[in-house]
Amino acid sequence: MSTAPTQPVTQEQPGEVPEQRAAAAPGRDRYFDLLRAIALFRVVFYHLFGWAWLPVIFPSMGVMFALAGNLMARSLRSRPAVQVVRGRMRRLLPPLWLLGTIGVSGMLLGGWGPDSEGHPGWWWIHLSFWILPLSDPPYGEGLPGIHGLIGSEWAEQLAVPLWYIRAYLWFVLLSPFLLKALRALPWPTILSPIALSAALEFGWLNVPSWRLDSNLVDFGAFGACWLLGMAHQEGILQRLPRYVVPSLAPVVGCLGLWYMLTHGFRPEHDLDDIPFAQSLWSFATVLLLLHFSPSWSEWPRPLRRWDRVVTLFNSRAVTIYLWHNVCIVVAESLWDHLWNVPLLEEHTPWLLESSWPLLVVIWALTACCILAFGWMEDVAAKRRPRLWPDGSRSAGGGRSGRHR
Q1: Which of 42, 133, 170, 284 lies 20 to 30 angstroms, CA to CA, from 398?
Q2: CB neighbours of 353 closer than 8 A, spacing ≥ 6?
Q3: Per-residue pLDDT for 349 more than 70?
């Protein structure tokens, strides 16, 4: 996912110079849109089912960081760095502020306050991370929910996805410098986050502050993906001989899988908990996806039926990402009510114990969040607010891929 999904994307073709590409008609790269939509769906699916193999099948976070890095490099080509960074922050932060306004208000009503961290002064300072998430925003643990509607773990689940916002913000702030380094020393720059991840994993680098450590761990795990996205936009990947990536990426991926399997991979300790393995596997997967990427200005015929869904996901990526965990908590609380129906409890306990029907409820609740909160993404992007921007004419956005 990229957290700035609404900007047009074009891919540089082998041998194409920037001037030629700039002269081409702008449009969305529907292959990138499809990857972003799949990544978002997989994130929701994983947070509901918790299957350890899901991040292996499709490393969503690495893919989303790569797509965001591609967009960032494209913007930095044509506009001043300060303007680009400011624009990205403007798109990112207002949806977070809306979440924080509602979430923090609920936490305060639930009894969370300055004494929660043992030092009121620090609590107020840490609360500012809800405004500018340079570190993980604080939240109230163990707060009561609303009986029968919201479970007691709601505050924790609301805060779980925010590490991505924090990591994304740092990548945005560092991108002008990363792009300069990428142009000067492409492959040492791309591989440097993996080297950082190895240094942290094997104890060659010790960081005393857990907040700084969190930032460095995430940069090590996903920085190479962000840089691969930038490198794709810069044409660096396209200059490689065609056999290099298909030959090298599987070797790196297998190394990541080997490290994962030999370092405690299990349902409670999956790829997301093994940063060095994550860095290798995500790097290899993203490298292959970018290497084989077609440039779709129009959908291939078999995929045209998914146009509106994919367009909606890309138009409301931030809203879906920020609110889906709360939707899971609410859906589970509502689903528990069905145990009070004797007929269902007696004859279909297998249905009540299954998470599959919950998936439908969660997406229904997520659709409600899109309607209720998605407009903030339009406001942040300085667009006319839309309720359901799936690219249909009734949504007021024209057909996707041409007028967005």
Answers
A1: 42
A2: none
A3: yes
Q: Which residue has the tokens 């680009």?
A: 84
Q: What DSSP string runs through 119-161?
A: -HHHHHHHHGGGTS-SSPPP--TT---BTTTB-TTHHHHHHTT
For the entire predicted model, the pTM comes to 0.90
Query: At 370, is the secondary structure helix, strand, or coil?
Result: helix
In the numeric block, the tokens 């990548």 are attached to 171
CA–CA gap between residue 288 and residue 202 (Å, rounded): 27
Q: Where is pLDDT greater, at 390 or 146?
A: 390
Distance from the Cα of residue 224 to its chain's centroid: 15
Identify the H or E element spanning 390: none
Q: How far is CA 120 from CA 89, 126, 132, in A?
A: 29, 10, 19
At residue 177, the pLDDT reads 98
Amino acid at site 376: M
- Please give the torsion angle defined by the CA atoms of residues 170, 171, 174 and 175, in that order, rounded to the nearest 10 degrees: -150
Cα-based distances in Å from 273 to 56, 59, 199: 12, 13, 16
Packing angle, helices 60-78 and 30-49, rounded to 10 = 150
Return mean pLDDT, the chain. Answer: 90
* Placement of tokens 């249905």 in the chain: 351
* Residue range 300-329, pLDDT digits in tens: 999 999 999 999 999 999 999 999 999 999
Whole-number Å distance between alpha carbons of 53 and 269: 11
Beta-carbon count within 10 A of 208 CB: 6
> Which residue type is seen at 165?
I
Tokens of 202: 């094997």
- Strand partners of residue 269: 266
